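EI: anyone free to look at a 325-residue chain?
SC: sure, send it
EI:
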Amino acid sequence: MSESNDIANMQESNQQVLNDIKLLQEQEQELYTKLQNKVSSNTITDGEKTQITNKINELYQMRLNLYSVLQETYSSYENNIQNTSNTLKEQKYAVDIIEKQLVNFNFQNDESKTLTTIALINYAAAAILMPYELFYQECIKHRYDLELLQHTFATSFEQVAHRVTCLQNPKMKGIPFHMLRADIAGNISKRLSLSGIQIPRYGGACPRWNIHSAFVTPGKIHTALSKMTDGEKYVCIARTVEKGIGRHGVHRSMVSIGLGCQAKYAKDFVYADQLNLKDEKAAISIGVNCRTCTRLDCQQRAFPPINKKFNIDLNKRGISVYVGE
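SC: here you go
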């Protein structure tokens, strides 16, 4: 519908330009006839002759400019058609390659195959927008400054965060990051874990992850040094982004994008510069989620652990019956 409207608007605009050209031609012809008659009857002064001639030249130039506008419009339209045609051919070529790759896989249903195809097409699109070698070089140069990379490649914060997790070519290998996307209720809708950190597949993540606190100050990047129950430390960042089509009266959803790596890669990750990596007290103790976490002294525990015995003291009242000392 939008494309049809654009074509109709272009046709209307072109018709208006043609009408203006015709009007200028008529005015130019009238002045030329007037000049010819006055010269024939020898009733024109030099000043009047110069004035009419200048006006004819002015109208002629205006007409040429309109012809140029018309020509540019048609050229642009033809280029758009050609570009669209080329894009469709490239998309079809990419889909054909993906389908050939998937033909030997056994999917439980058509929906699974369709989702896999979409994921691979999205990956191909990201590779086109952010070519591997160039993107890798920019990441190394700017130490994975996501906002700078976002502006360099004219992409979104989430697209850049996702792309940095894909830099695993053995010849040009980037930092192994983990990435996740969660809504304000804690539902995780995207999870990638190359850093080795455990990300819950069902339910929400540990409430102490900064992916949740990012909702407090939307649009700002939050940094944290996080320590898992196995002692491994991670440099984690999180920032909220808005999703959906923005138009009046339509609420846009907000999600938080989390990205992180093991602390040993901190020197190559610009967001680690503001963290005190040597201070044990600076690290925030986190887990996967309450059910699997062994930290009984966590002040934000919501459920008892399933892998550790838990005693409830009837004579004590704290933040929660599940929070130990």
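EI: The mean pLDDT is 86.
SC: 👍
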